[in-house]
Amino acid sequence: MLEQTSIIVACPECHGSLQPGVGTLHCPACDLSFSVNDQGFLEFMRDQTYCEKISTTEEKAGNQSSSGANRVDDEYVMPWLMREPFERVLDVGCGVGRIISKLAAAGKEAYGVDLPCLAGFWSQDENDPEKFFHAEASRLPFPDDYFDVVISMGVIEHIGTGKGHCTLPDDYRRQRQQYADELLRVARPGGRLLISCPNKSFPVDHLHEVKDMYSPDTLETRIRDRIYRRTGMNVHRTWGKYHLLSYGEMRRHFCEDGNGSIFIPLPLKGYFGLTMFESGRFKPLRGVADIYFNKMPRIARASFLNPYVLAEIRK
């Protein structure tokens, strides 16, 4: 019963307070109501495109709970968080919610936001309905300046792609700026953001397929897709309109066009997964890959030599 809830949320449109009711929260200023879905989680979605979007499958959800994914949390994300005192954390694009659960167990006030397709996984894992919400990343249901830390990993490259995962509309930069501004809005002054995505300037991406249902059928796309099907490597262009971001583009969104004050390229050690080098044709390269990714010099972090954009942003 939401009339008895203590959750700290705000209207995703005006950022004002919400009035509780039976199974709903209402914004009197916008005359909008937000209800609990069949799985017991509040939905703040306005754009039906996101309601229909599938961001996670059973296989992907299993991967998020794998030992490799947990290793990234334990060896990279948690140590990064613990470098400074904090209490309130928001994970935008939290997936099945591993980090939120770990932080809650550590006594932190942690919240997760993702799309409605995650509801079944959240229910299955018995995630707390007062800590997990369905909302658009560019319309967050939280008050201004609330969080000490905001995490959003592997999300920004999907902002503005509609129902697909890589085809961009003409206004994709505006949508991504709205996303960056929203993450900065809910972070407190002096708060930290941890943002990541594959680096557009690095010509190979192993996390995303070459095309989606809206991609044009060109010779370039067919060649790239054949290479991907055989090797698992998405060899892509490093310029022009593309769904991945470079360090320069990330810095521009959050600091030059946003109100972020400091942009720090982070090391990859402990973050970049080397599972693709543990077996198969790439196994002989494991030693080289370990040196390359885990001992990359500071000067190369924000360059085309780095396969990831991994940055700390200070508000």
CATH fold group: Rossmann fold
What is the helix content? 25-40%
What global shape is seen?
A: globular
CATH architecture classification name: 3-Layer(aba) Sandwich
Helical/strand content category: alpha/beta
Give the integer mean of the pLDDT values.
87
Task: Supply the number of helical segments.
Answer: 9
- Report the top-level CATH class: Alpha Beta
Tell me about the biggest sheet?
7 strands, mixed
Ranges with pLDDT <50 over ≥5 residues? 56-68
**Strand order, sheet with most strands:** 6-5-4-7-8-12-11
The H-and-E topology, N to C, reads as EEEHHHEHEHEEHEEHEHEHE
What does this structure look like?
This protein is α/β, with parallel strands linked by helices. It has a single domain (41-202, 240-314), classed as Vaccinia Virus protein VP39 (Rossmann fold). The protein is 28% helix and 18% strand. It contains nine helices and twelve strands. The protein has helices spanning 48-52, 58-64, 67-81, 98-105, 119-124, 172-186, 219-231, 247-256, 286-294; strands spanning 19-20, 24-27, 32-35, 88-92, 109-114, 132-134, 147-153, 187-198, 204-205, 234-235, 262-265, 308-314. The strands form three sheets. The protein has a seven-stranded mixed beta sheet, sandwiched between helices. It has a three-stranded antiparallel beta sheet with strand order 1-2-3, with no helix packed on it. Strands 9-10 form a two-stranded antiparallel sheet.
